[in-house]
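Residues pack. Consider this:
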Amino acid sequence: MIRAVETGGCPHAAIRKDISINLGPLEELSNLFKADILLCESGGDNLAANFSRELADYIIYIIDVSGGDKIIRKGGPGITQADLLVINKTDLAQAMGTDLSVMERDPLRMRDGGPFVFAQVSCVI
């Protein structure tokens, strides 16, 4: 079951600083289905704002190579503090002009040993 949440604008780009309005639907789903896990997808291009420990116990942060190989160096809590960083669409790296060796090196430096994986459509994580 999918529940809508308040975005305050364009759903794929809006971020709310006050997440309390979205906690209700999460609690409702959890109680209704006795869920062991709820997946919440955040969106937008503000890398720092797409990270909320208030909404999640475990955070998987997904970026893709279309942002270029320097995207990890932009930092932000999603890049540096997520429980897992997924670097997606690696099969498109060459077409995007993205250097995967840079995208492999930078998380080692930025994440203080935190885990990260490469992913692509033809390879299941």
Observations:
- Strands lie at 60-64, 84-88, 116-118.
- Helices lie at 20-33, 77-81, 93-96, 100-110.
